Amino acid sequence: MTDEVVLALDAMGGDAAPQMVIDGIAIAKTRFPKVRYLLVGDEPRLKEMLASRQDVAEVCTIRHAPDSVSADAKPSQVLRTGRKSSMWMAVDAVAKGEAGGVVSAGNTGALMAVSKFVLRTVPGIDRPAIAGLFPSQRGETVMLDLGGNVDCNANNLVEFAIMGEVFCRIVLGIERPSVGILNVGSEDAKGNSAVKTAHSILKSHHMQLSFQGFVEGNDIGAGTVDVIVTDGFTGNVALKTIEGTAKMFSRFLKEAFTHSFLSKIGYLMARPAMHRLKLRADPRRYNGAMFLGLNGITVKSHGGTDALGFANAIGCAVDLVSQDFNAKIKEELAHLAEPEQPAQVASL
Amino acid sequence: MTDEVVLALDAMGGDAAPQMVIDGIAIAKTRFPKVRYLLVGDEPRLKEMLASRQDVAEVCTIRHAPDSVSADAKPSQVLRTGRKSSMWMAVDAVAKGEAGGVVSAGNTGALMAVSKFVLRTVPGIDRPAIAGLFPSQRGETVMLDLGGNVDCNANNLVEFAIMGEVFCRIVLGIERPSVGILNVGSEDAKGNSAVKTAHSILKSHHMQLSFQGFVEGNDIGAGTVDVIVTDGFTGNVALKTIEGTAKMFSRFLKEAFTHSFLSKIGYLMARPAMHRLKLRADPRRYNGAMFLGLNGITVKSHGGTDALGFANAIGCAVDLVSQDFNAKIKEELAHLAEPEQPAQVASL
Predict the structure, then answer these.
(1) Three-state SS for B239?
(2) Into which CATH architecture does domain B1-123+293-338 fall?
(3) Helix count (H) and strand count (E) of chain B?
């Protein structure tokens, strides 16, 4: 099914672009040899780079974009003046049907604003959400929203649950993912009104979704459920809290190991183990925040990523496009609209 | 100043109570020899235990409580029927002025409900907050609220900032603690209306508070500011996310070290380093959630804590009582009420 997949790539987004984008395509090609790319950016520069990369050139079409979006540009400003940027033109290629999805390592806020403006939300989805993958003790956990929507009502959370579940099925290949809503306790009576109402909607309606009720912050790392649903404020804080805790832990570990001569020798002996740990929590494995709920797939790669991370972001976009994420979302939304079955009344 | 400090202790709260409470007093006594305790619980049992512990008995007065609060009791139920419990009677001793503060390792929700009901909030404080200490790369960070208030408005956040700052001065001994509001970005325009309004209040008023603006989830572990202010929903999720991430990291580390024969040898060599790491992140060092803003100090020790953890919770209560936390809060609140200085107009 990846035969017909075309992705638009913002060749100029990210700290190490465009070299990292081109090297990322080369890596992705080993996994998806038939995917084709619309490479949007500075044409003369890209042409020159591709001249020596026949392997990459043969799966790419270059489209010239005279501008690019800087990392610190304000989304509102990009919306006003960014139409000739590589980011905008790449997203626009999706809107025009020339590509099924877009990958950019550029400015997150601008990419979200442009994607919303150009692609619009899928009918039935009020607001797009940002989803990401997190390492857990049981494997990987999907969490959304990670910052697209600072204030969310119950309906938004229900839509996130539907999108997250389909995303998990496609990207992690889990047949029947379990879903939980992030809260301050697992009892039904806890939390604010948005999570409580979303809880009762997800409990009551007759979708296929395996809803497990409320989960707590520690369930992200424990991997208690496959999909964790939350508002963009809490999700963004949780995402960055995980990053900060991991960094602190690494620093403590490093300091503990360099504290004495003996501990340094211990470190040398333990190096393969440490390397294994590092690989397991490698942020490049979890690279890519997905904007779900738009008419087309947008994958945001980390701005500081390298070619391997960018290739993973491409892989995620290929999975979502080739397995028609949006068609599956629409199916699930249709279930939501079905009326409740009337309770069976026993004959007297 | 600890000469006159009396603490009420819920002798029956916590998994290992009352033994852990008595052993905790013995440890605390080495640091605070003059502090006295009102030990509230099952008198016959406590008397028997103290018979062989003269060192502890000499700083304790036992008060009989016929009941205790179970770990899974609902706060509302405890409010209705818990007046004869060790928890309630310990809190009540503070309300009656017999003790300056109370420490309990019992049911958190019940302790918060009873403390609010019996002690009431300090004039000028709308809602009490739960504060805690977190390890960071720079030392320790205070964060509040950790779950007392699921929905917070801007004024609540401002009050939390004031209480957190005074708490940090007293407990961590930092003369001029820096304060930040937890948000989804550090730019002034980001976030929901509560954090934005709180930001402008804290920026504009003329208190001594060293307000640093917005911080993000990763700033908790980085230790960017001394005090992090947030609503109880986000704070509770962040607290538990840190716990979950630390657990996952420890598990990954253990698995990495037990993966092969060589890595096991590496682990043996690195054991002192690992032990150092463990000590640094020892949850017992950070034991105790403080309920701030009530007429009296309530410290909640972790339910599963041991004597060392309980002694740390006692230490925190002693610091807050002996340095008159509530008097300092009132001083700061008075600043908040002062009118803004009119802008100086240059003479023409």
Answers:
(1) helix
(2) 3-Layer(aba) Sandwich (3.40)
(3) 13, 11
Phi, psi of A171 (to 5 degrees): -80, -40
A221 in B contact zone (CB under 8 Å): yes
- HEC-encoded secondary structure of B50-67: HHCCHHHHCCEEEEECCE
ipTM of this complex prediction, to 2 decimal places = 0.86
CA dihedral B332, B333, B335, B341 (to 10 degrees): 150
CATH architecture under which domain B126-291 falls: 3-Layer(aba) Sandwich (3.40)
Closest Cα in chain A, distance from residue B171 (Å): 22
CATH architecture classification, A1-120+294-326: 3-Layer(aba) Sandwich (3.40)
User: How many contacts (CB atoms, under 8 Å) link A and B?
Assistant: 192
Same fold for the pair A1-120+294-326 and A127-291: yes
Contact residues, chain B, for A230 at CB < 8 Å: 237
In this complex, which of A240, A246, A269 lies closest to B266 when CB atoms are compared?
A: A269
* Token pair for B230: 């947030």
> Which residue ranges make up each domain of chain A?
1-120+294-326, 127-291
Cβ pair A152, A193 in contact under 8 A: no
Class of domain A127-291: alpha beta
From first to last of its 348 residues, chain B has per-residue pLDDT tens of 566 899 999 999 999 999 999 999 999 999 999 999 999 999 999 999 999 999 999 999 999 999 999 988 999 999 999 999 999 999 999 999 999 999 999 998 899 999 999 999 999 899 999 999 998 989 899 999 998 888 999 999 999 999 999 999 998 999 999 999 999 988 777 889 999 999 999 988 666 789 999 999 999 999 999 999 999 999 999 999 998 988 888 888 888 777 777 777 777 777 777 777 777 766 666 677 899 999 999 999 988 889 999 999 999 999 999 999 999 998 888 877 665 544 444 444
In this prediction the pTM is 0.88
